[in-house]
Design a protein that fits this description.
homodimer; about 400 residues; seven-stranded mixed β-sheet; three-stranded antiparallel β-sheet; 12 strands; disordered N terminus
């Protein structure tokens, strides 16, 4: 994907807005950047737009033209309930070679993760997984007064499969499900196909395993594989996928679970079943838009490799990533560095305890990565400091 | 609202689609009309579009131009998480004179109803309300293995407040909350302000009362009032509102609860917190678009009165409605009549047990109401049959 393509897409959205004479909403310039649960700092639109946004593992290119067209078409049904929905369930089922009964839609894979928590942590009270990982599952567990058995990563940042098996078996009566983000967020490290096999062979067969494959499309390592075939085998595996990353639809809120019918049936009552027409039509187009996916993947991996090579050259170790983000070891506490980046209008990832000397950087556009490198060199003018032992 | 206005609005959406060369998605003409939980009959887009849609209490005019513009603007943030969101929470709070901490967003008021169920039926297991009413709360109760104490309507279709008080007090230890749809769906009948006062005075003060005001904007009766002031008084009242009806945003999925902070705090962990940027921007504009609301209200009430007057003239009693739908007494079983309407490409409401001789008709456009009356006269060529005693 070249920059012109990106500009033309932005131009596309912009020109729609222009065509209808959009002039901004309300007299106030202060808008509330809010994502549901936790109010964030308020930015005006102009402030927000001016940031290099490398903090949330977003796809900086947004939906493809075809997806924008499909979403615009869906406005036709804005006021309806039982409207033709672009055949989204069938499209997902066909894509994975499963039946519609094996698919559950969610408002982002975030809702899928919540549904799994609500379903399997109400009776049995613990989820087993590594730390750091995508924290949503653990936060919800705590919200519904369940608990998490959080296991440390190995020294090479891989997930400790024998420890997960052991933790699951030793607490079997209390464990609702096993959580595995693959590739893992925030490290970008995969669990191999062989390790997943080992996990499934090592735990009781009726233990649900939630495999969060939000970053699936960015993986190159041939030892990785999706866990969907385990669903087809009838294993108690739930694969979570999202349109937020490879398809650039984070704010549209669409994700789904692929799982055996018995698990989907248990999960369904805990979902809202409330997906917007815009998301359905967009998703039905996006899942077939493999050319766009390949473009996003190629430019993202190229920019990630370029940036990590530059950081390594400056003496900063990067954890080898298989995703659209990476972690760099700073050799000092990350929070003050995050603040320095923000002063330079570059948003980078938050601290991920206990990895408090690592900075997570999402891969943005070429321009954003350049701004990141300029800021990085300003913040670390002398290269990497000696380890503090902190 | 005149027809030109409506046509121009449709034209607006259509011209956007035309401007971007939209040609339809996928080679298949069969699309799946699916609304989350229960797959409905599949219609092609052409089939669906051809129906007079008087079955789901939809606003046939769709979002206003201003709301469409705001939603289109939100595509700019399609790929983001912590984006400026049009200040939706603040807009709702200001509209009702409450604090943002008193507001919880949901993917439609449907999600709000689900959240209330998940929050208050997990420990105490029963919801108290009338039947027929909007069934979502009762269905969810059954889905999460809770139960409902469903009380019959009075002979004039009003809700039986003394029975609700009695049912709540007699089962106090087991009751999670009281549900009240006001005006009620499917009857269109209100609960008066005085009756709500009586209810709140009659039940224990810590009993949550969910007042579903989905059809609030259509009420004319001066004895009706919103329950929001009871929230301000600190009563354990949860008011549910939606953008689906008066604002024509059903498929966009946006609703909210207004409640005391202690209830919102309990409810929040049971929500997805996952609302699309499109919904947020659209809602922030819609709630201020009072001119549009007044137009929708005026044309809807006019067409409802015209249609019910015609039916009464033919000898069919209509329940006096305060909403954008009404019930007509057929004097015979409703299901075969529904089927007859469908043959004539008019979709009307499903049966609402135990009112199986009543047909619920949503108020559509002038054209749709004309098609309804033509079909009605074909199905009932001799006027109202004598009561069968069924």
């Amino acid at each position: 994907m070249d920059t012109n393509k990106t500009l033309s897409r932005r131009g596309f959205v912009g020109s729609l807005a222009a065509a209808i004479g959009y002039l901004g909403l309300g007299p106030k310039s202060v808008l509330w950047a809010q994502t549901g649960r936790r109010p964030r700092r308020r930015y005006t639109e102009a402030e927000y737009d001016a940031f290099a946004k490398l903090s949330s593992n977003e796809n900086p290119y947004g939906p493809s033209d075809a997806v924008l067209e499909a979403m615009n078409h869906a406005f036709k049904y804005a006021n309806r309930y039982g409207y033709p929905d672009g055949n989204i369930l069938q499209a997902i089922a066909e894509h994975h070679g499963v039946e519609p009964e094996n698919v559950l839609l969610g408002a982002g894979s975030g809702e899928i993760l919540n549904i799994v928590g609500s379903t399997f942590l109400r009776v049995r009270k613990k989820v087993v997984g590594v730390e750091p990982s995508y924290g949503s599952v653990y936060r919800q567990a705590s919200g519904i007064k369940a608990d998490a058995i959080k296991l440390p990563l190995l020294s090479d940042y891989r997930q400790d499969i024998p420890a997960i098996i052991d933790g699951t078996k030793k607490n079997y009566r209390d464990v609702g499900f096993v959580y595995m983000c693959n590739p893992n967020n925030p490290t970008g490290v995969i669990v191999t196909k062989k390790e997943i096999d080992t996990l499934l062979d090592g735990i009781p067969e009726d233990m649900p395993v939630l495999v969060d494959e939000a970053y699936h499309h960015f993986v190159e390592d041939p030892d990785y594989a999706t866990a969907v075939p385990h669903v087809l085998e009838g294993r108690q595996v739930i694969v979570a996928r999202t349109f937020s990353k490879i398809s650039g639809m984070a704010a549209i809120r669409l994700g789904y679970a692929i799982a055996p019918k018995n698990l989907i049936d248990q999960m369904r009552p805990n979902g809202t079943g409330s997906i917007s027409a815009i998301a359905k039509w967009g998703g039905a187009t996006a899942i077939k838009d493999t050319a766009e996916q390949e473009k996003v993947r190629a430019v993202t991996l190229e920019l990630r490799k370029k940036t990590t090579a530059e950081l390594e050259k400056l003496g900063f170790d990067c954890i080898p990533s298989e995703t659209n983000f990476f972690m760099v070891h700073l050799g000092r506490q990350v929070q003050p560095v995050i603040d320095e980046f923000r002063k330079r209008t570059v948003l980078v990832g938050r601290p991920f305890p206990p990895m408090l000397e690592h900075l997570r950087v999402s891969v943005g556009t070429a321009d954003e990565m350049e701004r990141f490198m300029v800021a990085f060199k300003e913040i670390f003018p002398d290269g990497k400091p000696a380890p503090t032992g902190a």
